[in-house]
Amino acid sequence: MNENQYVKQVFSKNKEAYVTSSTHAYGSDLSTLINWLHPNKDMIALDIATGGGHAGKKLAPNVKEVFATDITKEMLENTSTHLQLYPNINYVIADAESLPFLDNAFDIVTCRIAAHHFPNPDRFIDEVERVLKPNGKFLLIDNVGPLEPSADTFINSLEKKRDYSHVRSLKITEWEELLSNNRLTILNQEKRKKTLPYNEWVYRTLEAKSEIEEVKNYILSAAGEIKDYFQIKVLDGEIIEFTIDEWMVLCRKSLNR
C-alpha cells in the first residue's frame, strides 16, 4: 500500500474525528489566516487537503468562491454535509501533488495541518506555484520538525506510530528552500508551540490497545531533554498533553522567475 492509499484509509475511517477535533476546529490560526490574507469578495480561493473543511469554512464568507480539495472522497462528502450553509464552497477530489486546475487560477491558496501527509512536498509546492495567480497569496500551516536531530527523529517516529499515513513533518529550513525555489516569497511567518490533548490525539487514529500502548510507552521512555522539549505532561502515570512545533507562513507568488 502506498502513502496515498494509507491517507485514504486513515481519513475515510476517521472523517468525523477531523471535523470535531479541537486541534483542527478551534486553532487561533484560523483567525490569523484571515488577518494575514486580507481576502475580498472578488477572490477565488483553493484550500488543499481540506480535511474537516475548517480553513475553507473560514474563507467562504470572505471570498467569491472556495474550491476545497481532498484526496479522500469520504472525507469530502462528510465535510460537505457539515458545511451546507456555505453554498460557495465547491468540493473536488484531488491529489495535492497533481491538482486538476488550470495555471494561474486562484487568488489565494491555503493548506492547513496536512502537508506532513504528502509523499512529495516538492511536487505539492510546484503545484501551488502553478495554480496561483502572479501576486497571489499562499498560506501554509503545518507541524514542523525541530532543528535538533534527536527531537526531529522522536516526533516523526511518534507521529508514524500514531498515524501510519504520516510521512514527515519537514523542518522550517526545508520548507523555506522549497518556497524560494518556486518564486514564493515569504511575507510573514510565525512559529509556535501547539498543545495536543493526548487522549483526543491518540484515539483519533488508533483503536487497537496494543498500538495505543506502544505509543504511550514510546513517549514515557523518551529521554529527559525530549520530554522537556515537547513539554510532556504526565499525571499518575498517564499522559495528559504535550506540545509540537507548528509553523504558519504567508507567501506571495512573484511575477518573475
UniProtKB/TrEMBL annotation:
Methyltransferase type domain ranges (all copies): 46-139
GO biological process: methylation
CDD domains in alphabetical order: AdoMet_MTases
Keyword Methyltransferase recorded: yes
Record GO terms (molecular function): S-adenosylmethionine-dependent methyltransferase activity
Pfam families, per the entry: Methyltransf_11
Annotated protein name in UniProt: Class I SAM-dependent methyltransferase
Keywords for this protein: Methyltransferase, Transferase
Species in which this protein is naturally found: Oceanobacillus zhaokaii
Repeat among keywords: no
Signal peptide annotation: none
Family: Belongs to the methyltransferase superfamily.
